[in-house]
Amino acid sequence: MKKINKLRDSSPANLELSENLVHIWKARIYDSVLDIEKLHMEILSQEEKQRASRLRSAKDRMRFIVSRSLLRKSLSHYLDASPSEVRFTYNKYGKPNIDPEYHPENIRFNLSHSEDLALYAITQNREIGIDVEYIRKVNKADKIVSRFFSKEEGEFYHSQPNKKKNWAFFTLWTRKEAYSKARGMGIGLPTKEFDLQLVPPDIEHTDHIQMKNKDSKWSLINIEIDSDYLAALATEGNDFEISYWKFDDT
Ligand SMILES: CC(C)(COP(=O)(O)OP(=O)(O)OC[C@H]1O[C@@H](n2cnc3c(N)ncnc32)[C@H](O)[C@@H]1OP(=O)(O)O)[C@@H](O)C(=O)NCCC(=O)NCCS
Fold first, then answer.
1. From the CB of 131, is ligand 1 less than 6 Å away?
2. What CATH number should be reported for the domain holding residue 97?
3. Are 181 and 104 found together in one domain?
4. With 5 labelled, which of 105, 205, 206, 222 sits at a CA distance of 20 to 30 A?
5. Domain span holding position 160
6. What is the residue-wise DSSP string for the chain?
7. Is the domain of 119 the same as that of 15?
8. Which pLDDT tens digit goes with each residue over 127-162?
9. pLDDT over threshold 60, residue 63
């Protein structure tokens, strides 16, 4: 059974996690009232400071510093560690995970950003992936669909009336990305070779899609996070409760 709660304006007092709970934190990157230099100095690791210094544009640098600091702040609620003490490991495709050598709680997370928005999905003992996209006009959408989407997904996309094509594109895109990210493989996962088995003609109200390859331990859900964005969450199993809220200090 899945339960999706309503978006809250701030984090709840009780931030206990278990494997049946998924917490999503939503943050604004560029409108935030945070002191960027303070975050940079006080929260980021040496390695992250170096990564920030390699970013040429001030906007990218700000995005990385705010997004990584807020990741550390949110995770520290679930770990016996301050934001600057959180340690990460990376898999061979670059997915960050919490280092189990320092943090035995088996907290799992994934994050995504697009334009001004960052989303952090956090749970325990199960893999998780999240993707958010600002809804925009996509150039050469048909080409992208034929390159990345399965045959059935392509048929679903092309069957939509023009005014719904953009929505269909980003619904498919975010779900595929969320699943690739939950698997930790990013572009290492051949996106054409798995299919979301959409339920035509209307997937708007379908929140649980089984994988065509019978990989039914995965759930894929679109989350209503903001009217200008589409977001999807992929996680193992189908028995969980999602709660989400805005970051208090952004
Ligand atoms: C990193 C990647 C996984 C997602 O990139 P993106 O959509 O541009 O960016 P998002 O904002 O959603 O996610 C970035 C975050 O995901 C995390 N991440 C990095 N590599 C990851 C991986 N292999 N798996 C899961 N998460 C990853 C990081 O925390 C990163 O944020 P950071 O750089 O600030 O630390 C990208 O390299 C990728 O492979 N995307 C899939 C591309 C694709 O083929 N899509 C087709 C969809 S139909």
1. yes
2. 3.90.470.20
3. no
4. 105
5. 132-213+228-236
6. -EEEPPPBSS--S-----TTEEEEEEEESSS----HHHHHHHTS-HHHHHHHHH--SHHHHHHHHHHHHHHHHHHHTTSSS-GGG--EEE-TT--EEE-TTT-TT-EEEEEEEETTEEEEEEEESS-EEEEEEE--PPTTHHHHHHHHS-HHHHHHHHTS-HHHHHHHHHHHHHHHHHHHHHTT-GGGS-GGG------SS--TT------TTS-TTEEEEEE---TTEEEEEEEESS-EEEEEEE-TT-
7. yes
8. 999 999 999 989 999 999 998 888 888 888 898 888
9. yes
Predicted local distance difference test score (pLDDT) of residue 204: 45
Spacing, Cα 181 to ligand 1 middle (Å): 6
Model-wide pTM > 0.85? yes
Omega before residue 201 within 30° of 0, cis: yes
Our count of domains for the chain comes to: 2
State which of 59, 97, 111 you would mutate to test the pocket of ligand 1, scoring each by most atoms of that ligand within 8 A of its C-beta. Answer: 111
Residue nearest to atom 21 of ligand 1 (CA): 95
Instruction: Return the residue whose CA atom lies nearest to atom 29 of ligand 1.
Output: 111
Q: 18 and 114 share a domain?
A: yes
Residues 53, 154, single domain; the answer is no
